[in-house]
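Bumping with the actual sequence this time:
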Amino acid sequence: MKSLLIEQSNDTPLISFDIEKNKFEIKGESYSDDANYFYVPVLEWLRRFLKTNKVPITFNFYLVYFNTSSSSVFFQILEMLDKYNSEVPVEVNWYARPLDLDIYEEGEEFQNDFEPLSLNVKFKQSAWDHKIVSLNYKIKQPFGAYQMAFFYF
């Protein structure tokens, strides 16, 4: 079985399931109109992998935004990991950007749904690649030009 890598798009996250390191990540935004269509091959791949793997795994969620249909898929993934955890140790990390209480609280809800599973909910800045954009604005006032920096993800 080979690792699974699906590049991020505008409305689907990066899927990186690395079987050499046993590190699995879902990262970005997930709001496809048909999340089930996107995630069916991911769920199938994960089911096949869990049937044969006997080594502890780490599963990381780095989400910026997701819709309800994506949430139901994440629930299915956590259900699979919860069942698998009885045989092989699984560590799940749910990361939220600092001050992103919505994503953090969603992680806490999943944590409550899957108490036997080691599901850690954390704030973490470095989980996302971020860029700083500098813009120069010329204002016709005695103050001259201002430089402003904006962070975006």
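The tokens above came from a reply further down the thread. The first helix runs from residue 35 to 52.
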